[in-house]
Write a structure and sequence with these properties.
The strands form six sheets. This protein has a six-stranded mixed sheet with strand order 11-13-15-18-19-17, with no helix packed on it. With about 280 residues, it is mostly beta strands. The protein folds into four domains: about 70 residues, no CATH class; about 40 residues, no CATH class; about 55 residues, no CATH class; about 90 residues, Jelly Rolls (Sandwich). It is rod-shaped. The longest helix has 21 residues. The chain is built from one helix and 19 strands.
Length: about 280
């Protein structure tokens, strides 16, 4: 790459006065001619048009005409997704990829791939969707809409971490309904954490006091209590109100009682079904 003018700048000492000798100025004139030729060689400018810029090309050590990436001569960039015809973004505009943590991107040629996990998408909305929508969990299931507002979820899992899934209409289970069951350990003091499951089981091997935690208004839980082979174990229920007062557990060996508790936001209201037998 040629450098100028600091390293090759010609002197004007023999060009300042009319009495200067052209012979003495010849070397300076030649130097400046060389400088001009170097500039001409470095800049490849032929028929420029409005909005173009000069861009350096390392392959030939020259500045060449190119399109201004920020000027009016540049057309919009179109972003195309697998499920869309494309969105144009004009120079100077912002194209935003929205999502929570866990979003990753990769570029291959002219393809930008955006990848995220199920929980990255906090809210999803289907409005009259006529076609299949990929599952947010493992891409194995899908959601369909029959056009009448009825959604069908196939091979999919709806998950919420720390939030509430609101179903503001009638919920119908065509096949079955399943509740998680949490196994408790027998001890003198048994904590029943309502946030772990709606159903809890325990085989009593000693007298026990049950304490219920983490219930929210409108929630119900069930505690299935089985006497061990000895029986005679007693159970009390902290803060739970029963019809007619605290109940007495069935005490025969292997007897099964079921305690149901509903929390209305103020009171824990309990009921007992006793001595389940065949």
């Amino acid at each position: 790459m040629a450098t100028w003018p600091s390293g090759t700048k010609a002197s004007t000492a023999n060009l300042d006065a009319g009495t200067d000798s052209p012979r003495l100025a010849r070397a300076d004139i030649k130097q400046n001619v060389d400088n001009v030729n170097a500039i001409i060689d470095m800049f490849n400018i032929d028929g420029p048009t409005n909005g173009q810029i000069l861009k350096y090309n390392t392959s030939n050590a020259r500045f060449e005409l190119d399109t201004d990436a920020t000027g009016s001569a540049v057309s919009a960039t179109t972003f195309v997704g697998d499920d869309s015809t494309g969105t144009a973004v004009n120079p100077g505009e912002t194209f935003k990829i929205a999502g929570a943590t866990g979003i990753t991107t990769a570029v291959s040629g002219d393809t930008l791939t955006i990848t995220g996990t199920a929980q990255d998408f906090a809210y999803a909305s289907l409005t009259g969707a006529p076609t299949t929508v990929s599952s947010f969990t493992n891409d194995a299931g899908y959601i369909t809409d029959d056009g009448n507002g009825d959604l069908t979820i196939t091979n999919s899992t709806i998950q919420s971490s720390g939030d509430t899934i609101d179903l503001d209409d009638i919920v119908r289970f065509n096949v079955g309904y399943k509740e998680d069951i949490n196994s408790l350990t027998s001890s003198a003091s048994i904590s029943v954490d309502a946030s772990t499951a709606p159903v809890h089981t325990v085989t009593l091997a000693t007298n026990a006091t049950f304490t219920i935690s983490n219930m929210v208004a409108g929630q119900s839980i069930m505690i299935i209590i089985t006497q061990d082979g000895t029986g005679t174990r007693t159970g009390t229920f902290s803060s739970v109100k029963f019809p007619g007062g605290a109940p007495t557990l069935s005490t025969g060996a292997g007897d099964i009682d079921v305690i149901s508790v509903f929390y209305d936001g103020t009171n824990y209201l309990g009921n007992i079904a006793q001595d389940f037998t065949t």
